[in-house]
Amino acid sequence: MDASGLSVIGANVIEKGTTNGTITDMDGNFSLEVGDNAILQVSYIGYTATEQEVRGRAVMEIVLQENSQALDEVVVVGYGIQKKSVITGAISSVKAEDMMNSSNTRPEQALQGKTSGVQVVSSSGAPGSAMKIRIRGYSSNGNSDPLYIVDGLRTDDISGLEPSNIESMEVLKDGASAAIYGAEGGNGVVLITTKNGSSGKTQVTYDFQYTIQSLGRTPKVMNAEQYIGYMTESGALTDVAFEGIDTDWLKETFEASPMQKHNVSISGGNDQSTYLMSLSYLNQEGIIKGKDDNYKRYSGMFNGSQKVNKWLKVGSSVHINRSIQRSINENDEFRGVISNVLLLDPLTPVEYTGALPSHVQTMVDENRKLMTSENGNYYGISKYIAGETINPFVQRKQAQTMKTITSFMGNAYADLTPLEGLTITSKLGINYYTQNEHVYKPEYYYSGEMMNMNASVSENDQMMTYWQWENYASYVKSLGKHNLTVMAGTAVSRRELKSVVASGSPLLNDQESYADLDYVGSQENSNVGGTTIIDTKLSYFARINYDYENKYLFQATIRRDAAGLSILPKDNRWGTFPAVSAGWVASNEDFFPQQDWMSHLKIRASWGQNGSLSNLEKYKYASAISSSGEVLNWLTWSNINAPSLYPLADGTYATASSPSVLGNRYLTWETSEQFDLGVDFRFLRDRLGLTVDYYRKTTKNLITDNTPPLEAGNDPSPINGGNVLNKGFDFELSWRDHIGDFKYGISANLSTLKNRVTWLDPTISRLNGADINNSWTATAFEKDYPVWYFRGYKTDGIDPETGNIRIVDVNGDGVINTGDYDYIGSAIPDITYGATLNMEYKGFDFTMFIQGQAGNDVLMGFIRTDRPSTNRLSLFYTDRWTPTHTNASRPAANVDTEYWNSDQMIFDGSYLKIKQIQLGYTLPKKVTDPLRIGRTRAYVSLDDFFTFTNYPGMDPEAASTNNNSIGIDRGFFPISKKVLFGLSLNF
């Protein structure tokens, strides 16, 4: 029975050291034959396991105590930790077990679908590509990235962290939780804590994974027959015929590729010291044929702590990383490899194996340097498509990019405890980062528009040095039923970013081994440049936590930050960011009915303000003076850049200077203000948990460019000119139970989001965003609409008589032009969700994880409207209007050009992905003990294998590294499906 006298149904009762066991019945009774001196082990989900000696008794009464582990779970918060049971803010946590045994190569992937209120956006499926995290919506017209804190150290880049080395990731979602980070917490905060050792026997762990990656969803593009028919009907081509070639560019370009990962760690310690050392290696080949997309990462970590005496503890955390990434150009409708795969005609072969066609033979006769394959054959050159759309194998080689990153991130701290309850912490952190981007462009010729007559090389070097020094004190005191924690401190930081860019051509020898600036044959085409940016910040912060008998909870936080003069003007450099939160644990009240169906109820509310420095550039507020500018060339009637000249009395001219940007000495940071109301429930003896939050987040003072009068002659100055509102609900649900030896758990989360621009400065009617094909400004930032919504022509079906599209005359002037552009969709999802199922039976375990979103749109931006003979998806052919198919969903092939700038290019981007299906087996101890090894587990997994969506492109997760281009598919590198084999050994 439990402590209240209720029967515990289905509890495990096992004779210790044997497999002799049973489970309790509907009345909590059990019967088991054991010896007089046996020991019974009794366990049940939600209760603390216990051992009972039989001592010859024939009848035993066993009382199980509720296990409050879920409520007593420690959660990392800014500058400290708190028990989950007394937290008053909105904090979601992902633990180490959620990150193990997956094909994740970056820490951000571990958050996707695992917690509410967090959207993880993939900017590419290419090896080593970056990801974007959006916490409770898109908060700015610019950068909305959260602040990352790794073991207490701020960082902009977490790509070097091996996910299996992470102990926990906490997401501070509400303003009160993030307020302790003041001017940098406006977009939310992600706290990452890496693993450490513990006292006891030294543990050696080795994890190995081998993964086979391949192309997942394959979009359907027009084959040769469809291409010829469509282009003939449209009038794009008048002399085209089938010549026996029907190239499937998707099949030819992609291939299965391997990925392997190794991670070994050694940990241990005693009552005085603990340590953990780890080495990791990752090698991921891309699914594009060839060796031009590859990512290698070498990572090392050391965490340690030492109790010097009873009042002093010291420790350190060190991370070293080196990565090498070879990448192709992608997400580019002009020169992207993926877009060329989708756009090149199927009548062109990959390479020529026989006689050359006349247009290629002519180039050979002219001694053009055409690219060849590994077989020595010339790559195919289209005779139907001109411009930047070329053979993807040529596109892959015409710019070979390698990025090398070396980073060191570490800190050292000392905790002093001069008095009971008082801890003084001093922590010094350093983040050093270097990056080299090497680009080699060989000499080649494909057409008059795509060629490089001189082999060239360029180097882009960046070096970032960041240090922070934080000193803070925490005091914990309990007086009877009153519990108080006070923390106060100060921080100072400095960041220096230095960049040097150099390029030159031609090379003495057109080979990759000669792609170095030392081998540039002439300095005529050489260029060099560079800059240095220094940012500094000074901060004071304080927080007070109070609770009475773990029932009435209160927290107040304040932080005051000063940005350096390179960021903000002197009069505006200081900002104050307050927050308060409160909670009531109703289930701890004496009057709360102690019912089995509800064991915990907490109501909480919070309000807080945070800032954002992410959109403030170096001296952006300052005035600028120029001695040159654009003038009209009367001969060509075009603008050219020329010196500003002022006539003198003697008839000569002097070079004059004039303001180019007037500046803004009132510029300040963007500020986020958020209200959160949440309820935490636990039911059925803690087996069922439910958390519900409502949030309303307003970001004010967005940094935008104003619109100066035309006669002023100046570029726009930055102003604080906009507000954005994000609001919605977060839900998190969990269930765990067991039936005998069968254990299972289910966790799910769902978030809703409404995003809207609520105010723009009166001088700004609209901010224009991303261009498609240099002909369509497809995104906009405007009052009363979502951030960077899609803007274009609205359509009203197809004219059954002509097959043309009906464009809506929005302004009613009788003319269809860009004045009729209107809202046609948004890339921001209304709903994001995820769910995980875990099951265990004896040594077997099974996991299935799904993730998805709904209500978002994707704009198909890779279609080249300026190159009408480029290929299309087959839906534009099979669903097109013809005289015999008048009820078609797509217009005739010779449709007006406005069609391609309309809502007909907007597709439903909702999707559901089965991110993981994994089956594992842990060897029994009777096998591992004689071998003197610890827990040994082998597993196989299908990751990102199944996607359900109506989007006809390659991947519905299409995104962009540019903030104003979210949801535009310009040839998105798809996320590959994976078959993973893994092994985990412990010694």
Question: What is this structure, in a nutshell?
Answer:
The chain has 987 residues and is mainly β.
Describe this entry's structure for a reader:
The chain has 987 residues and is mainly beta. A hairpin with a 2-residue loop joins strand 17 and strand 18. The two termini are 39 Å apart. The chain has a 22-stranded antiparallel barrel. Strands 7-12-13-10-11 form a five-stranded mixed β-sheet. Strands 2-1-3-4 form a four-stranded antiparallel β-sheet, with no helix packed on it. It has nine helices and 57 strands. Helix 5 runs antiparallel to helix 7.
Provide tags for this entry.
single chain; 987 residues; mainly beta; 22-stranded antiparallel barrel; 5-stranded mixed β-sheet; 9 helices; 5% helix; globular
